[in-house]
Amino acid sequence: MHDPASRLLAIRARTILSLAGEVPARGARLFAPLKKMDNAVLLVRDGLVEEVRPWAAGHLPPGTEVRDVGPVCLAPAVVNAHTHIQLSWLAGQTLWHKGFAAWLGSLIPLLRSGQAETVAQAITEACEGVAAMGTCHLGDVGGSLRGSVSCVQAACRAAQIEVTHFCEWFGYGPPFTDDLFPWPQHCRQEIENNPALAADCAPAGHALYSTGPTVLQAAHRFCMEQGRPFSFHLAESPEETELLTSGQGPLHSCYAGSVLPEGWQPPGLRPLAYAASLGLLGRGSLAVHGVQLDAQEVDVLAASGTALCLCPRSNRNLAVGTAPVRALLESGALLCLGTDGLTSNSDLDVRQEAVYLREHMDIPPEALVRMLTINGAAALGLAGSVGSLAPGVPARFCLLPEALTY
Ligand SMILES: [Zn+2]
User: Fold this and answer.
1) Any idea which architecture 8-76+393-404 has in CATH?
2) pLDDT in tens, 14-36
3) How many angstroms is it from 298 CA to the middle of ligand 1?
4) Distance in Å, CA 341 to ligand 1 centroid
5) pLDDT tens across 270-282, in order?
6) Ligand 1 centroid from CA 158, angstroms
7) 379 CB burial (10 A radius; 0-12, 13-18, 19+)
8) Which residues have a beta carbon within 5 Å of ligand 1, which is an ion?
9) Domain with CATH 2.30.40.10 in the chain
């Protein structure tokens, strides 16, 4: 029983998709019709969903506050499973449309130039922005800038959104030892200063060529033991494939003598095969991008249980190619969406990734809405309260863009 004095809020919309009772969707389940209710109302008591039901003004208890959001489709708040909030201060400063190595070459010199105040201000604005876009949870790559994890944590808390911090190990050295684990240097200092932060953190890899294999394996092992998602960029660019298979190409020019250790030898494998050989695939792993996967690799990824976060607008902006989205949808892989950061995207509105896939690849809205909500929650290992408007869960919702509405 609720406290009779507690406040009831009624949010009326043309259509409400609650996704109540839905489970993470793979393969054909992604395309199943979503239950929708037209001329509906979301009843909220003390911040929790009480019910979604047909609108009938006379049936609301006296004193109910009614908010009519108009002729829109209301859905559970969305999950942005991959972003880089700490780099938000670099918005508009990197080189796009010329390939991955050209983008990276434009980014690296900028990374050390950030003033703490500028970085923090951009983090605050980014978090306020994603909250206003109806985002309830971020999978955020952090840790390369000193203090950034704590800063993102505070900004998310102020904006009333949750965050999983992917504390990213970058590079091959100094020599990795168990007592250095699990947090990369900057994150370790932040967690020592604020031990509560560790609960929202997961050690992560950057990519198969930029993080040493033993570090990737140790981070993966820690995440599996702790029940946390293990995330890394996978098969993003043709340059990545070239470097891993032949040891050549523009990424080698970029990283030789700085990131790659002396005498580094390529594994001679394509990205997915290399990830598999290191034991990085499987349930609990969240790969990001998957642009370069071929048909057979799509099936291998799906069979492994690895989740994949697609970032289609970032891929377009960096001109790295287009992920095989149709094949991935049909493969049975667990798929979700992310914006990547503002160095490769114009905004952090993950709903716009879905709009892009709707408009450019004709992906049906049923699949896209599931990827934005319950699948994003599952890919980040979140409890059942994220991604639906079932009774009893926090009442966090978004308005769907017109292209995704039913
Ligand atoms: Zn990224």
Assistant:
1) Roll (2.30)
2) 999 999 999 999 999 999 999 99
3) 20
4) 6
5) 999 999 999 999 9
6) 24
7) buried
8) 340
9) 8-76+393-404
